Amino acid sequence: MYYMNDFPNTDFFIVDNGNQGLYEKLNGPGFQAVPLGRNRVVIETNRNIGVAGSWNFICRQIYKNYEYAIILNDDIYWGRKEWEVEMFIKGNTDKHLITTPLDWCNFILPKKTFEEVGEFDEEFFPAYFEDNDYAYRMKLQGKSLYKVPFLIPQVHRVSQTMDKEGVGFEFQYVRDGFRNNKKRYVEKWGGEPDCETFKKPFNK
Question: Strand 145-147 and strand 106-110: pairing?
Fold first, then answer.
């Protein structure tokens, strides 16, 4: 509800990728776009499409009508007002991608960058290293990633991914996902983040 008050004229696209039952009435195959009232849409999936898949799907919806997508994790509250964000974007139209100083829990991605760099690599599944991959692909195209305090959330709770997964088999699923994606990143770019050696994926 906070965001509805903070952004009264902004369209929201919410991917229920963690099977949280945000709109339990629909259980059909694939994606379901569910209107929840003015400016709000929940997009349900009948399977986990991963972080990169969720970002891609949200961006494709947003760019049908808008030039900028603001992507926020579900475990943060930004605390900015609509007018503040509008002014910030107007003053940073030359930026290729803007994130918080530490991570991608909140980032602003212009349509132009998405079209030129391409979609997020959904092979990094379910999560981890999809952001590093995108940042390096931007770098190869001479595009810069800007990290600014303006995007730091007012509230950032404990990692919701880890909290939802808990312990045991599901925790191992998350941990193995990190390891597998790290291995894939090194194979794809010839080194870990900031130590890449390849200029083309898998040195092809």
Answer: unpaired
Query: What amino acid occupies position 130?
Result: E
Q: Under a CB-based contact definition with an 8 Å cutoff, are residues 136 and 117 in contact?
A: no
Task: Please tell me the pTM assigned to this model.
Answer: 0.86
Judge if the upstream peptide bond of residue 126 is cis by omega within 30 degrees of 0.
yes
Residue numbers of the chain with a pLDDT score lower than 50: 25-29, 160-167, 169
- 106-110: strand order across its sheet: 68-72, 106-110, 97-99, 145-147
What are the residues whose beta carbons fall under 8 Å from the beta carbon of 58, sequence distance 6 or more? 13, 15, 43, 69, 71
What is the reported pLDDT for 160?
46
Residue 71: its H or E element: strand 68-72
User: Tokens 């139209």 appear where?
Assistant: 93
In the prediction, which pLDDT does 163 show? 47
> Which structural domains are found in the chain, ordered by start?
2-203 (3.90.550)
Query: Do the beta carbons of residue 123 and residue 130 sit within 8 Å?
Result: no
Q: What is the pLDDT of residue 161?
A: 47
Distance, C-alpha 113 to centroid of its chain: 14
Rounded CA separation 180/127 (Å): 10
Cα diameter, the chain: 49
Closest CA to 130 of 116, 118, 147: 118
- Region class of 50: left (phi > 0), else alpha (psi between -120 and 50), else beta: left
